[in-house]
């Protein structure tokens, strides 16, 4: 019993720390790389951590001989959506707002369960909860009010905000898709293997991308501050946070992890205020609260349904 409590505490702490890391990254670190090309930034955000991973996890290369075509297919999808497209979309969104609406962009990422649960129903044949459409509608509507308030977006004055919101939603969809694809791999391999190849394949895809676009030349204008930020992200908010997150998930239930993940938007709001003197207005506070409440409701409903399903499977196998 004592050991179980210790595992839950360690797991919850790991998920909480990773959530705070991601909040710090989205508000303080990545936006300060705005002088560089988006594709080049995403390449470096994956290439540097992958180099570090090779030092400690080089034995993971043995799987290259045992992966099936189906494994390769899903790993490429994870790298494409969770690595390349998703990260490029969120980095582009953060660059577009010019430190003005960073909290909004970061919070819109939290909509990814809306897409992830829907895709899980399509790809993994999971049943949608009876209240999914209600929760999803509330979350998306709240995301709109969080971004634009009670006013319709103005094409002339809000163009960057509109584009940023669109890229943030694309990132949410991509990360949600990657979560679903990851389940196909995590059913067969450890999270260490999945993370290693996610970074490896994303690095390869982004290298091809920047070679084609010619943006690899940004290495010549990368400042000392840029390099420092890349390194900090590599060991903390990047691969470090992902390993912490998966470590935590193996020790706590999904609903506990969901609650711990609330530190992501909360820390983002705090960091945006501390570093950028940015504040949400009353409408945005209410919208953010309602959106997060809806996402928690959606995740809780799914977690309970999956737990019941697992119990039934165990009872049948017994």
The unreliable regions are: none
Strand percentage: under 5%
Radius of gyration: 20 Å
Major beta-sheet overview:
none
What general outline do the C-alpha atoms trace?
globular
Order of helices and strands: HHHHHHHHHHHH
Oligomerization state = single chain
Q: What helical percentage do the residues reach?
A: over 70%
Structural class: mainly alpha
Describe this entry's structure for a reader:
The protein is mainly α. It has one domain. Helix content is 77%, strand content 0%. The longest helix has 36 residues, at 282-317. The protein is globular. It starts with a helix and ends with a helix. The model has no long low-confidence stretch (mean pLDDT 82).
List the helices and strands and how they pair.
Elements: H1 2-29, H2 38-57, H3 69-96, H4 102-108, H5 112-123, H6 132-148, H7 159-186, H8 191-213, H9 224-249, H10 254-260, H11 263-276, H12 282-317
Short description:
The chain is mainly alpha-helical and 318 residues long. The protein is 77% helix and 0% strand.
Keywords for this structure?
mainly alpha, 12 helices
């Amino acid at each position: 019993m004592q050991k179980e409590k210790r595992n839950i505490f360690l797991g919850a702490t790991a998920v909480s720390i990773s959530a705070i890391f991601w909040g710090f990254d989205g508000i303080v670190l990545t936006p300060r790389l705005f002088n560089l090309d988006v594709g080049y930034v995403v390449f470096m955000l994956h290439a540097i951590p992958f180099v570090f991973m090779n030092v400690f996890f080089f034995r993971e290369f043995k799987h290259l001989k045992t992966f099936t075509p189906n494994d390769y297919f899903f790993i490429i999808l994870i790298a494409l959506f969770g690595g390349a497209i998703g990260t490029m979309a969120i980095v582009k969104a953060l660059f577009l707002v010019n430190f003005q609406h960073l909290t909004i962009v970061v919070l819109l990422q939290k909509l990814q369960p809306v897409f992830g649960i829907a895709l899980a129903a399509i790809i993994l044949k999971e049943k949608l909860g009876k209240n999914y459409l209600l929760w999803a509608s509330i979350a998306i509507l709240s995301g709109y009010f969080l971004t634009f308030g009670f006013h319709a977006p103005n094409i002339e004055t809000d163009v960057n905000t509109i584009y940023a919101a669109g890229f943030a939603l694309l990132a949410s969809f991509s990360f949600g898709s990657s979560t679903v694809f990851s389940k196909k791999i995590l059913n067969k391999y450890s999270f260490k293997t999945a993370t290693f190849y996610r970074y490896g394949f994303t690095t390869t895809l982004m290298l091809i991308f920047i070679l084609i676009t010619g943006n690899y030349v940004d290495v010549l204008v990368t400042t000392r501050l840029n390099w420092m930020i890349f390194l900090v992200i590599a060991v903390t908010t990047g691969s470090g946070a992902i390993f912490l997150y998966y470590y935590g998930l193996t020790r706590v239930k999904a609903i506990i992890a969901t609650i711990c993940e609330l530190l992501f938007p909360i820390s983002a709001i705090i960091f945006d205020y501390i570093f950028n003197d940015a504040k949400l207005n009353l409408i945005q506070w209410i919208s953010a609260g309602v959106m997060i409440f809806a996402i928690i409701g959606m995740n809780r409903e799914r977690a309970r349904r999956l737990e019941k399903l697992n119990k039934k499977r165990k009872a049948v196998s017994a």
